[in-house]
Amino acid sequence: MLSKNQIKIYTSLKQVKYRYIHRLFIVEGLKSVEELLLSNFDIIELLVTKNWYDSNPDFGQSAQVLPEFVTENEMAALSNLSTPPGVLAVARIPDYDDVEVELKNKITLVLDGISDPGNMGTIIRTADWFGLKYIICSEDSVDVFNQKVVQASMGSIFRLKVITRSLTSLFDQAAGLGIPVYGAYLDGVNIYNEASDFQEGVLVIGSESHGIRENTHKYITTKLSIPNFSDNTNKAESLNASIATAIILSEMKRKSVLF
Amino acid sequence: MLSKNQIKIYTSLKQVKYRYIHRLFIVEGLKSVEELLLSNFDIIELLVTKNWYDSNPDFGQSAQVLPEFVTENEMAALSNLSTPPGVLAVARIPDYDDVEVELKNKITLVLDGISDPGNMGTIIRTADWFGLKYIICSEDSVDVFNQKVVQASMGSIFRLKVITRSLTSLFDQAAGLGIPVYGAYLDGVNIYNEASDFQEGVLVIGSESHGIRENTHKYITTKLSIPNFSDNTNKAESLNASIATAIILSEMKRKSVLF
Predict the structure, then answer these.
(1) Measured between beta carbons, which residues in chain A are less than 8 angstroms from residue B231?
(2) If you placed Cys at B249, which of A130, B36, B130, B200 could pair as Cys (CB 3.0 to 4.6 Å)?
């Protein structure tokens, strides 16, 4: 059984400050917890309600840690969902500080100030689908171990390395290696016409409200745009950040296999 | 000044039942209200707080209806946002019952049981970007005049016709005209290799949890898939429904301009 103090600590993980004091985060629901169990992440607790466990007797048989029971009220306190799940895990936030990002022969995604957790999680999920190995988030992005981000990533956050750090050294590294830095803009080159084979490169996505910021803009070597096909005089001004990321990654990957 | 009864009616529009009893819906925030003002939708009320109006003195000068003041509390009651906006409108739900959907020479989107309002709104915004004229939603989809859908559509819901009706007659119409019906599946033809020029067609997207349902499946003439580029043994199983829609529409539009 969990102590009151443990429950208190785990409940505090809803706040970013306590996630980094304890270096722990919450993973909710069966699908995400199953993906966590398949990953290399350290699992501290597997928490289940009695009701849920009784209807899922095979759960956790092969897990590194045994499931512990919590009451429905405790689960509700730990969960971020309006309908709390029957299963939830506490995992350790990985230390990516010393990870050297490899930029050669691959596309790497850089997120410049993405603040919406749902968008962040969806971008992580999409980048995983397209086989990316790293996402680098600017330090003012939403925390990637936020419960909503983890939820929306649908387990992808356990597969690719989502690293929060200053972007400058990454851009210097790309410049040193001669790797192009693409940015998503409203006034760039039509991505369908861009001649690159996209075998390698860095793709920078800014927030919907601010776009790619001044500090980052100077590192961009090619501005890319997704053409607007509307024939209305009053057109949509922009796309959602996760949608723009998906369309550009799709087009890069399509071109990369043609060569 | 609004009467208590008006406030009561407008507040009730958060519930789908009352939206259709009154055939009214809520549009929140400056960006969405501005798009509403540019549209052909009937505007019943423009509601502003005193504070907001004082800092936006030019607002509503050319609007068909004069802004009315509401208190901050009334605005909070009407709003669906945790930070209520300073401006909000009540508009009439358009009657699309007799609209004949034109399928020739265009791509038309069909949504089969999309229940997440954020996804629905993002799909509408994306379809507008790619110049679509119609989206047809199955009757069990989330109501498209839900406040969260309207919010996420960022004004696009006022530009293309988003029609909720039984899908069967639409599929019969497509079959009668010899127009292909594409469906997004996990085991279809790689969209990058699909030989169609996509000058016209119906694209069906199912929900993430259930996919395209049995009743709809029989009308699909070509199954399309977005290839998974991950080299992990444990891969992401699917994409978010709005992401899949965006990638397929992008690829269709890219191909359509090549011809």
Answers:
(1) 131
(2) B130
